[in-house]
Write a structure and sequence with these properties.
about 180 residues; alpha/beta; seven-stranded mixed beta sheet; about 40% helix; about 25% strand; globular; binds glycinamide ribonucleotide
């Protein structure tokens, strides 16, 4: 059985790039931001791209794309909008996955890296979780931890975390796909 995924992005798409390069079958990419860099990455890989700024329009179109492309999982890769309860409830359980740059349940929401640095935690990391109706509150699938260095800046920490994300996200998605085959 071939597992297909759709990916939602808002920004540069470095995680999308890692997912595509890992060989996962990405059937469509949708953004809420017409200028998201990740749209170019998808186009170069010949993956159909779509963008809608309105969340309700985006959700109703994504529902149609899931049927059209017969996708099994919806992957959020730097998608910075909160999906509505109606949309989440309309999807099969455990079919939407997100990656977040903190050790959830700490530092939910936007600017997680900045929040962790400001708080002064000594360790932070990356969390991959199923999406439920809350903000970064769904069932945790996997996490990875790193120690924050003395001289750490938002930029350096983001770089280190993204390096982890680019390995952990594709391998976790593949593990989920394999376990469902
Ligand atoms: C990633 O680091 C991801 O963890 C984060 O956005 C970045 C997107 O980068 N997601 C969140 O903060 C979600 N709350 P990318 O567009 O280069 O993949």
């Amino acid at each position: 059985m071939v597992y297909n995924v759709g990916v939602l992005i808002s920004g540069s798409g470095s995680n999308l790039n890692a997912i595509i390069r890992s060989g996962i079958n990405v059937k469509f990419v949708v953004s809420n931001n017409h200028n998201a860099g990740g749209l170019c990455i998808a186009k170069k890989a010949n993956i159909p791209v779509y963008s809608w700024e309105s969340l309700s329009k985006l959700e109703s179109e994504v529902s149609k794309l899931i049927l059209k492309y017969n996708t099994d999982l919806l992957i959020l890769a730097g998608f910075m909008r909160l999906l509505s309860s109606n949309f989440i409830q309309s999807m099969p359980k455990l079919s939407i996955i997100n990656i977040h740059p903190s050790l959830l349940p700490a530092f939910k929401g936007a600017n997680a890296i900045e929040q962790a640095l400001k708080y002064g935690v000594k360790y932070t990391g990356v969390t991959i979780h199923y999406v439920d109706e809350g903000m970064d509150s769904g069932l945790i699938i996997d996490q990875a931890t790193i120690k924050i260095e003395e001289s750490e800046t938002i930029i350096s920490l983001q770089k280190r975390l993204q390096k982890i994300e680019h390995k952990l996200y594709p391998s976790t998605i593949k593990r989920i796909i394999d376990s469902r085959k």
